[in-house]
Design a protein that fits this description.
Chain A: Keywords: Cell membrane, Electron transport, Membrane, Oxidoreductase, Transmembrane, Transmembrane helix, Transport. The complex is a heterodimer of chains A (about 120) and B (about 675). Chain A contains three helices and no strands. By secondary structure, chain A is an all-alpha fold. The chains are: A mainly alpha (about 120), B mainly alpha (about 675).
């Protein structure tokens, strides 16, 4: 997207674009993402670890996956020209936490408050 | 097989009302098309409007779409008011299944295809001008966003003739909206029009966020941006955060209906309350997406017509961003009665009451802006004043509804309906009209007729109060919303009064249409010669009216909060313009049919999915993808406007402005 005009405050490049790191970063990212995906599939079916730890492991792997995407594909860094991206990420994380946390809390409280159903009204699940 | 579920039965030949309505609309559309073709306007429309990637043109097209859909939505409204005025101990003239479609279509159209396009249109038009920018960040994407929104509007209107619209309300609550209880195509029309236009809105949001954050004139720091740019930023941040939630929720319902999933069904572990939860996670930010840009319009209007800088600019910025954040913490107040319990309800009740505080800050800032100013009561200012009074009433009833015990009594009653009409008409629509009157001369080079504008204003305001204040009474008398008929004698007088209000609003709309025609006929007398008809303060008034494609011949350098006001004061003191700048060539993005073509395919995609015409859906999806590929591999995306042309356009405006300064000088000499 071009922007014609002069002056020091006009940046025409997307964040990360000026670094020209080539495909190297993307290859590392792809490798890490593939590894994390493969490990997730492995963990989901394995009997090698304590079973209740599997969901926790999957959550950890999923969050690591997000981190890989953000760093290697979306080029989120903490550099000074990256303030907008970091702010956007922070806003996004806050909204996701509000939405997920709020939903879990609301639905859990609703379930807790549901009147116990008599067996005659039992619904097929 | 070839046409999926589509047969001749889909055309409602046995129902006179939709058929006649569709016939009239069809005749009007065909007449307009013939007139445009005969007059030879097609190439002009194609080159200058349909394929335009100019943010000003796209903004105008958004507003035109909104105004047309406002008429359609209002026809639905007055039909409902008439039905309720006569359906006392009677069936009225609308059968229940038709009445249900009308209230569903009214809500869907008014929110998604009137309020949304109107505010997005105003933001598109004014924000780059106010920022001192030549264009938005993603011009072609912007055009795609507009045309996808138009596709959604088209699909809703096609449902009038082919098939039916949803009967499930403006938000299709399951399990009613599931296949089992709504087997027809109505809900599918709703889903596909919103899935497609939702993408358009998201695209518009991304474009505007990026524009505000990245594209400004030199020196336009965040705290020098006009208030409208701040509210645009907040509103579009909310679009980017909330619209994916809407799309995901509707995709889940679509999967339920098309592929037998069970996200929100009664059976197989589905939970319809999760739909309420998810849809309102989008739904509450949505109301702030609509109102925040209007707060920005009021800020501009109140400051301009009070001839004072905005009072408390920084507190206004703060209030805007606090509302932006808090709007994501209140969604449960739409379903207090769901049964999440007292602790959950208390938390969301308190956050809902807190969000009124920054809004109150804004109201006081506008009042203090007016205080001590020389207020000019032009039409945009009248809308702003009417807003302040009306919105405070609507806000108070909102705070009342935020109290869970009160909400248990008023939930789903006409009190609630009156409340949200009070804030959406009194806040969003009045703001959109204020912006429309305010920026019209900038867009077209002549003002709208003042007398007709005032007449229409009074009809709208009086009509609104007459139509909706009875709603509060009816709600307290226990009338629930969406009633096709009733047998409580106490309600009838109020419903007849409300019908009268709708008729007064109709007069306001007729006057608005007349205002457009009269203004076009008298455009020579209403001409805005210099580009600054209101003695404005922000940067957009530094451009000619209408602004050239490149907005600014030379990008302005910003040194304060009111750059244009400072320039103007200096010129008035010295009685001369600043020296002519050195003009250069300007690169601008080429027009592109990408938006129109992809929306063309999206229309067929939506229609084919609604009627289960799978081959057409596949073809249309392929066409849309091919359009994207062609656009992505384009070679030339820019053209050059030579310096001579830029100079010619800018000199014309400079000479108009010099003439004004010369008259000013002559007057001073005469004194």
């Amino acid at each position: 997207m071009s922007y014609t005009g002069e002056g020091p405050e006009l940046h025409d490049t997307a964040p990360g674009e000026e670094e020209h790191e080539g495909v190297g970063g993307y290859v590392i990212g792809l490798g890490l993402a593939t590894l994390l995906t493969a490990v997730s599939f492995f963990v989901a079916g394995t009997t090698l670890v304590w079973q209740p730890s599997i969901p926790v492991a999957l959550v950890v792997l999923a969050i690591a996956q997000m981190g890989v995407h953000l760093v290697f594909f979306l080029h989120i860094t903490t550099g000074p020209d990256n303030t907008n991206n970091v702010m956007a990420l922070a806003f996004g994380v806050l909204i996701v936490l509000l939405v997920l946390g709020g939903s879990l809390w609301i639905m859990a409280r609703m379930n807790a408050n549901m009147a116990p159903m008599p067996p005659t009204m039992h619904m097929p699940r | 097989m070839l046409l999926g579920k589509l047969t001749w039965d889909a055309i409602p030949l046995n129902q006179p009302i939709p058929l006649v309505a569709a016939g009239v609309v069809g005749v009007v559309i065909v007449a307009v098309l013939i007139w445009v073709t005969v007059k030879g306007y097609v190439p002009y429309l194609w080159k200058e409007w349909i394929t335009s990637v100019d943010h000003k043109r796209i903004g105008v097209m958004y507003c035109v779409l909104a105004l047309v859909m406002l008429v359609r939505g209002f026809i639905d409204a007055i039909m409902m008011r008439s039905q309720q005025a006569i359906a006392f101990h009677a069936q009225g003239y609308l059968p229940p299944e038709h009445f249900n479609q009308i209230f569903s279509a009214h809500g869907t159209l008014m929110i998604f295809f009137v309020a949304m396009p109107f505010v997005i249109g105003l933001m598109n038009f004014a924000v780059p001008l106010q920022l001192g920018a030549r264009d938005v960040a993603f011009p072609t994407l912007n055009s795609v966003g507009f045309w996808l929104t138009a596709t959604g509007a088209l699909l809703v209107n096609i449902s009038l003739v082919v098939g039916e619209f949803a009967r499930t309300g403006w938000l299709p609550f399951p399990p009613l909206s599931e296949l089992k209880y709504s087997p027809g195509v109505g809900v599918d029309y709703y889903l596909w029009s919103l899935l497609i236009s939702g993408v358009g809105t998201l695209v518009a949001g991304i474009n505007l966020v990026t524009t505000v954050l990245k594209i400004h004139a030199p020196g336009m720091t965040y705290l020098r941006m006009p208030m409208f740019c701040w509210t645009t930023l907040a509103s579009n941040l909310l679009i980017v955060a909330a619209f994916p939630v809407l799309t995901a929720t509707l995709v889940m319902l679509t999967l339920d209906r098309y592929l037998g999933f069970h996200f929100f069904t009664n059976e197989a572990g589905g939970n319809m309350m999760m739909f309420m939860n998810l849809i309102w996670i989008w739904g509450h930010p949505e109301v702030y997406i609509l109102i925040l840009p209007c707060f920005g319009v009021y800020s501009e209007v109140v400051s301009t017509f009070s001839h004072k800088p905005l009072f408390g600019y920084r507190s206004m910025v703060m209030a805007t961003m606090v509302i932006c954040l808090l709007s994501f913490m209140v969604w449960l107040h739409h379903f207090f009665t769901m049964g999440a319990g007292a602790d959950v309800n208390a938390v969301f009740g308190i956050t809902s009451a807190i969000i009124a505080v920054p809004t109150g800050v804004k109201i006081f800032n506008w009042l203090f802006t007016m205080y001590g100013g020389r207020v000019t009561f032009s039409v945009p200012m009248l809308w702003a004043i009417a807003f302040m009074v009306t919105f405070v009433i609507g806000g108070m009833t909102g705070v009342l509804l935020a109290v869970p015990p009160a909400d248990f009594l008023l939930h789903n009653s006409l009190f609630l309906v009156a409340h949200f009409h009070n804030v959406i008409i009194g806040g969003v629509l009045f703001g959109a009209f204020a912006g429309y009157e305010y920026w019209f001369p900038k867009a077209f080079g002549f003002k709208l007729h003042e007398g007709l504008g005032k007449a229409s204003f009074w009809c709208w305001v009086v009509g609104f109060y007459v139509a909706w204040m009875p709603g509060y009474v009816l709600g307290l008398e226990g009338m629930t919303r969406r009633m096709q008929h009733y047998d409580v004698p106490e309600w009838r007088p109020w419903l007849i009064v409300a019908e009268g209000g709708a008729v007064i609003i109709l007069a306001g709309i007729v006057l608005q249409v007349a205002q457009i025609f009269v203004s076009i006929r008298q455009r020579a007398a209403l001409r805005d010669e210099i580009g600054d008809p209101w003695d404005g303060r922000s940067l957009e008034w530094a451009t000619p009216s209408p602004p050239p494609a490149f907005n600014y011949a030379v990008l302005p350098t910003i040194e304060g909060e009111e750059p244009y006001w400072d320039i103007k004061q200096l010129a008035r003191e010295r009685l001369t313009l600043r020296d002519e700048p050195a003009y250069g060539d300007i690169e601008m993005p080429r027009n592109s049919p990408t938006g129109f073509v992809s929306a063309f395919f999206a229309t067929f995609l939506g229609f084919a999915m609604i009627w289960h015409i799978w081959w057409l859906a596949g073809l249309a999806a392929f066409g849309a993808f091919a359009t994207f590929v062609v656009f992505a591999w384009r070679d030339e995306d820019e053209y050059i406007i030579p310096a001579d042309e830029v100079a010619r356009i800018d000199r014309a405006n400079r000479s108009a402005r010099s003439a004004v300064l010369k008259r000013l000088a002559a007057m001073q000499v005469a004194q």
